[in-house]
Amino acid sequence: MNSRVMFSSSTGPKVDFLAATASTPEQVGSQYSRRYFVGFGALPRSDNIPPITEAQAEALDTLRFLGERFPLNTDFQKGDAQYINNLAIFHSGDAFVDTKKK
User: Fold this and answer.
1) How is the chain split among helix, strand and coil, in percent rounded to 5?
2) Which of 10, 67, 76, 96 is the S-S candidate for 80 at Cβ 3.0 to 4.6 Å?
């Protein structure tokens, strides 16, 4: 049985650790959003945590720029469905445009 350890807070990112089993290697998953690290809108960064360092900001920038450099684009057609584990892939989406086609 996998043992699962989750780290999260209302002001921070979520990280999952799944221990190795006889049939699967250990796994780490994370939900990334820069705004949880630096604060945003109604959810400012807690005063109890020091500001992120320049190295941490560069690491967050690296994740973003790698995602922009190596995107996996999908061309959904009517009836298509896609299932993604949010802890296994960093993803984003473009705005939906309704073409009014029937």
Assistant:
1) 20, 20, 60
2) 76
Nearest to 92 by CA among 10, 44, 32: 32
DSSP-assigned letters across all residues of 60-74: HHHHHHHHHHS----
- Given a contact cutoff of 8 angstroms between Cβ atoms, the answer to whether 96 and 25 are in contact is no
Q: Which of 26, 34, 27 is nearest to 67 (CA)?
A: 34
Picking from 25, 23, 19, the residue whose alpha carbon sits closest to that of residue 5 is 19
pLDDT tens by residue, 24-42: 898 877 767 788 788 888 8
pTM score of the predicted model: 0.55
Paired with 94 in beta bridges are none
Side by side, which strands form the sheet with 4-9?
4-9, 12-18, 27-31
Site of tokens 């209302």: 10
